[in-house]
Amino acid sequence: MKLKLIYIFVTLSVLGLLFALANTLKISDYEVTGNKSVKVQDTNEDYTKIMDVLTHQRCVNCHPSDHIPKQGDESHPHYFDVARGEDDHGFEATSCNTCHQSENNLNSGVPGAPHWALAPASMAWEGLTRAEIAERLLDKSTNGNRSHEELVKHMTEDDLVLWAWEPGVDAAGEQRALPPVSKDDFKIAIENWFANGAVVPSK
Amino acid sequence: MKISFTVNGESMTVDIADENTPLLWVIRDTLNLKGTKFGCGKAACGACTLHVDDEAVRSCSYAVKFAEGKNITTIEGLGERENPHPVQQAWIEEIVPQCGYCQPGFMMATAALLNKVPTPTDEDIDKNIINVCRCGTYYRMRKAIHKAAELHAHRVMNESKEL
């Protein structure tokens, strides 16, 4: 009987120890990049957060695959046959800036931000899978020749990118939908994901 | 706050309580230039189109603070009664307006187009002249835009001969 109790105690102790080890981060789970300590194990989570944002209509509406900007939370084609034009700013005399200024207009509901324009055609994301978007994002031939460092800066500092979290109201005065991840969490996810090599999980 | 700009060649300063007041309000109500019209208030119809530094702008959706230091042209400054702008002359010759309410916006949009594309094709017109006319004068406007391009070309040619 005594031997049985000892046996049970030892078995439970070993199981408990194994469980505790499985849930404890190892030193190898972290790598040091510059002065930052970056969590490696959550790279898939970072990727998911990033793609939750990049596939949201606040981003995709201006990354069209058919050269036609989209509008609204239901992403309808931009009214009045507005299209990309030769320089991503619309047409000669009716350009983006005919209506869109450097900040949201809360009277008319016309959105605005500095350098308002469509993303270049090489950065078309509309209709792509998450992995395909990631590939385009990382490929210098389609991302505006940006390095990882430049992408991090662009995606965490650019006023037009960050407009997604301050989209203002629409023509009916209704608040436009925000991306499903907060701006701060998105920035952290971007920094972590690139610091960990910008791995696309499907690969 | 005080905002200074030029309207139809005349320098002026306005004192506006709210810097986000639409430029259209200032043009119509403060400066009493009634040619520029309010249509939809959402930068959709184009009745409020005027020029800011020679670019077509929907003034109902343009905060007056952005006009600081800019050159603004309204329909009143596009030409003179004795010497109309080619666009205005063409509009008269083609008898374009019906009710007329939206026409100043169309003429300003057309003048901006001719500055960029002196001889526009129908496709150029389709892309750039996207204002709205409830009377449906689009057919006559298209003719007038082509006529304006001709008048403009003749005027440029005559001016170069005089030189």
Summarize it.
The complex is a heterodimer of chains A (203) and B (163). By secondary structure, chain A is mainly α. Chain A has 8 helices and 4 strands.
Structure, described:
The complex is a heterodimer of chains A (203) and B (163). Chain A has helices at 2-22, 43-54, 57-60, 96-99, 130-138, 148-157, 159-162, 183-195; strands at 30-33, 36-39, 70-71, 76-77. The longest helix of chain A has 21 residues, at 2-22. Chain A is mostly helical. In chain A, α2 (43-54) packs across α8. Chain B has 163 residues and is an alpha+beta fold. Chain B folds into two domains: 2-78, Roll (Ubiquitin-like (UB roll)), CATH 3.10.20.30; 86-162, Orthogonal Bundle (DNA polymerase, domain 1). Chain B is built from six helices and five strands, in the order ββαβββααααα. In chain B, strands 2-1-5-3-4 form a five-stranded mixed beta sheet, with helices on both faces. In chain B, α3 packs across α4 (103-116) and α3 (86-93) packs across α6 (138-162). Chain B is globular and about 45 Å long. The relative contact order of chain B is 0.15. The model of chain B has no long low-confidence stretch (mean pLDDT 96). Chain A binds chain B through residues 79-83, 85, 91-95, 97-99, 101-103, 105-110, 171, and chain B through 20, 22, 41-44, 49, 55-58, 60-63, 66, 109, 112-113, 115-117, 124, 126-130.
